[in-house]
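Example 3.2
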Amino acid sequence: MKKFFVSAVFVFATFCLSAKVELPSVIGDNMVLQQQTSAALWGKASPGKTVTISPSWTREKYKVKADLQTGKWMVRVGTPEAGGPYSITFSDGEALSVSNVLIGEVWYCSGQSNMYMRMCGYPSSPTGGAADAVYSAKASIPVRIYEPPCRMTVDPQYECEGRWEENTPDVVVRSSALAWFFATYLQGVLDVPVGVIVSSYGGSSIESWLDRPTVESRFPGEFDLSVLDAPNPMMDVNTPCALYNGQVAALEPYTFKGMLWYQGCTNRARAEQYTRLQTVYAEMMREKFQNPDAGFYFVQLSPFWCGDPEGFQTGYFLEAQQKTLKTIPHSGMVTTTDLGIFDNIHPIDKRTPAVRLAYLALQNDYGIKPFDATAPTYDHMVINETPVARDNAAISGKSITVFFKTCNTGMADSVGPRGEDLEGFEIAGADRVFHKAHAMAGWGKDVIVWSDEVPEPVAVRYSFRNWAPGNLTNTFGIPAAPFRTDDWDDLER
């Protein structure tokens, strides 16, 4: 791998007024390009003019003719192994250059407030570890961040404000905490530059991140699109297509390795629809960015009281999120049953989910597999008709043993911790009334669940209510995914 360093000279991404080549803000000084690929570069020039692109890492020059009507052009350039800094010159007779360009790994990050949450936190909602993160930031650590401003529009925009920024304290303090923790962890492991493009908006629904043709073709009649045609549109973060138009279209087709997604609070009451929405969102993004193999990793919602801590709405929604693992190829899910705060929908700890996302990327995209970072998931259950002995506990009545899918090997192929009463489990009989249960892990992939209040158990749920923190993990501390063994969708509590 080539050595890289960071120039002390900062050049703003503004260009000489006499230059005819125009570049979008996402292509500019300090940017990170995906290594060892054909990276997309695009812009505008005089209609019909030939644009020559000259990267400093090669003697090869790339030529492309601007469209005869619009002047738009797009070209893909081959990128080397990670390194830099480099420069790129664009010319249609007059030269324009961007500098301090690094080659490394690029990730696209999006979602609502938990992705948007700055290192400086929200009012009365701090970000854990923020002070250390801000003061330890330095430009010599090759992490770069690009964030377009929050914007809703009725039509797709092909330019937006924004610029790539270096890893300095004044930048980190106002950047997405989760995206920064992810990028910094990935950079430390891979020892290459890492760039993150963060396009997020607090309170936003997933349908606001879809484009209009997708909504019309994949969800006919499910969303009201009339506001997009109104003479004086009144939009908000739930307006279908509004955030795609304002914050995504202008970034296409920037080349990245994969995508991170942290969203769902706004859609929580529509579990069945969400499975379809998240599946289509991932498909659309891969198509728009011309990246069909991009990894797609998302974070499940954390426990939160939701106005009714005993309700099951969150449980059904988490189940809907998990279902997309089967409908979205090359996807992964981060569980957060251990991170919830009863009356705060924004968990303070953003580093932990960021690192868990990095584990998935390192495992699936970079081939680093010392253990399997996927969450243990429910496999099957067995009703124990006779008493069962488990460690020092004698279970006299009937119980249920739950078995989990894990992908580890050897001693790591298990769930736990053993020796303590596991939290978050409930058990029910044929009356469909769930009671808090005792639960103990065995020596492998099984947990036995019982309650003296349920003499004839038939179903188990784990971390399935709005407020139901759980502590079941695999050997490496990856939390198990919430689940239910029943198919009862008509329970109110």
